[in-house]
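User: Can you model how pyridoxal-5'-phosphate sits in this protein?
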Amino acid sequence: MFSLNKHSITPFTTSIGRVSRLVRDFVAPTPGISSIAAANPSKSFGGHWQPFTDHRKANVDPKVFARANGMYYYTEDNHELLDGTSGLWCVNAGHNQPKIVDAVRKQVGELDYASSFNTSHRKPTEFAHRLCELLPGRNFKEVFFANCGSTAVDTALKIALQYHRSLGQPQRTMLIGRDRAYHGVGFGGISVGGMTPIRKMFSGQLLPRVDHIPHTHSLPHMAFSKGLPEWGAHLADDLERLCTLHDPSNIAAVIIEPVSGSTGVLPPPVGYLSKIRDICSKHGILLIFDEVITGFGRVGDAFATNKFDVTPDMITCAKGLTNATVPAGAVLCQSHLFDTIHRGSHVDDEIAIELYHGYTYSGHPLAMAAGLATLDVYKEQRLFERSNELSPYFEEAIHSIKGLPNVIDIRNCGTMGAIELSQVPGAPLKRNMDIFDRCWKKGVLIRASGSLAFSPPLIMEKKDIDRIFNVVGEAIIESSKTI
Ligand code: PLP
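Assistant: Here's the modeled complex, given as structure tokens:
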């Protein structure tokens, strides 16, 4: 854990030149990516148009992973990085997990691909059963496989619409999301999401008939809360307001991340999720939990659904579903969803398509093989329990950062957490990216966007947690002397 007097601070003078170089490069006019590649062919990623990336910065100091193992990444020049973020909230069982790698190798030599449109292979069924078993007593019976989190979310929204149509309520098309939510990058996900910069970019063509309830974060009421904040359950009542405003008979579904992840780890206030559930049930509105991040152990159980004991109608998941070894997403559905759409599709004996939705890669053999092996590893290594057992230690460690310069909030739930720093006016990412760079140099990979976020692989040990937050503490102090 971080302690001001116990740890020496690495001299920061050598970094100043680089930081000012970065700043200079931030304000310089943007060269085209190909001119970057031409100017510096050995270092750039020219040709690779990266997601959510500032290519100028990426080119100044390219960060190139070459291999990974367990808790660690290694760059091309063999710089070792302790992974504080499970890649991108996804490698929950650690990198290059041998059992998962072997399962994928075996599968690719056996059955490379099989379409799930009217045909299938055995593994999706087996995987679907195993996934539903992770939610005992909650009536999850059917799983629709997608390609990633974004496609899982769009799938769930479509299932909601078709479900109500099958029930004879085609007017129920309105979708309710939340401010500060992230549900991926499909038009459905952006529409119900609440990340304003993304919405702004595509605002001309988002889905119509969408509304949002407020997010639950409030610095004055809950700064430095440990775990679930006590304040804020009443914010769920805003859903009643929207029901009155739009009439519930028009609302198809509410989608919520049980703990908002990408917008800075916002744990739900105590009692908030069950209030949302009650309001949805009262009005016949489907509730979708987007567990793309919270699924597979991150909050100390298989799903946040179990941890918080609130059961949605659908759960979207991805990331830890296959330990990210093969891209995949899934929508876990309660039996009434499948049954209703199935029944509603067959009016006579003619062959009828039931759900009007699917992906070439739904139930892909490599993803299914990776997923089954991943579930084995989670079980054999007790990784969900391990996450739960480590949560109090993780909590103490992340909160030991309180009091360092510019730190205005710290949040945690299970083994995910975020540190929020005051922003430099006009440069919201500057401080966090500087801290990210410093941590990288010191050999720790963190996630930096609007806040600093942490979600190490669940195979982590206490010494890994110590190292992550010691390094982050040092980096915050050093950074405060320059920014
Ligand atoms: N939903 C949530 C809650 C997420 O956190 C993410 C990604 O971080 C997504 C959906 C989108 O997942 P993907 O990037 O796999 O499309």
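A couple of observations from the model: The pocket of pyridoxal-5'-phosphate is lined by residues 148-150, 153, 182-184, 257, 261-262, 290, 292-293, 318 (CB under 6 Å). The longest strand covers residues 140-146.
User: Helpful, thanks.
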